[in-house]
Task: structure prediction
Amino acid sequence: MLKFKKVVRLICLSLMMFYFTPQLLLAQGSDISGQTSSSGQFEIGPDSKVIIPVIPDVNISYKYPIAISELAVLSGKPGSQTTALPDRLERNLDMTGLFTNLDRRSFLETDPMIGVEGTPNFEAWTIIGANFLVKGGLAASGSKLTIDMRLFDVRGGRQILSKRYSGNSKEAYKLVNEFTNDLLEAITGTPGVFGSQIIFVSGPVQQNVIMMTELGGDKPVQVSKHKGRSTQPTMGAGGRTAWIQRNGAKNELVVDGKVISSGPTPLSPDFKPDGPVAAA
Result:
């Protein structure tokens, strides 16, 4: 069984290989439902949900060197978030297969405030081979967290993105996901899909289970309860789910966690645009 991190990375890469050149990512909300790639099958649901029953292994050769600085403290006591959030951004970008994260120990300009206020020394970042530079500041107030993020084109010597994100400190990863999508749009022209809900099959063939997670989230959650084999997961508007589970000689259609039909005929579930599920 593939480890979860590898599974999610392959999902992200498969999206890129299907819809764009290796330098672009699939846009949230793109309507490609029911289409089949040369390397697997997936669709984008009406709520920008990603459904991938088959996860291929792909390779992207070119990667952009990017430097992601530790966050500067703007106010409050954010603690380890000043490094934890840049670390998460690095993991997100690593999953896309488009970037090489430069080691922070190689940075010649080490003051995290430079770039949040003032202009970075682009020569210092060019020397270490960076194409892009991420700088940011963090403000903490009770349970609220605000990050001010900057993206610089090092070779062009210019800022190409500046945006503020706010949310609950316990869900700080969502702010990083939002910035990741905006960063990808600034660089490639197309936003990323981080934050999309993913439903997928995991486990040995005879004991497949259905799992769900958020791309760029922390942990997958098992949504199927059946002890036997579960396959063919799909997702509809509003986060509705459906899949097929094998129960002896019967194929059971499970919708939103409940068995709604059962019989010997193999089924393939899908949600209609107006909401109801269909199985053929």
Remarks:
- The radius of gyration is 21 Å.
- The chain is about 20% helix and 35% strand.
- The longest strand covers residues 158-168.
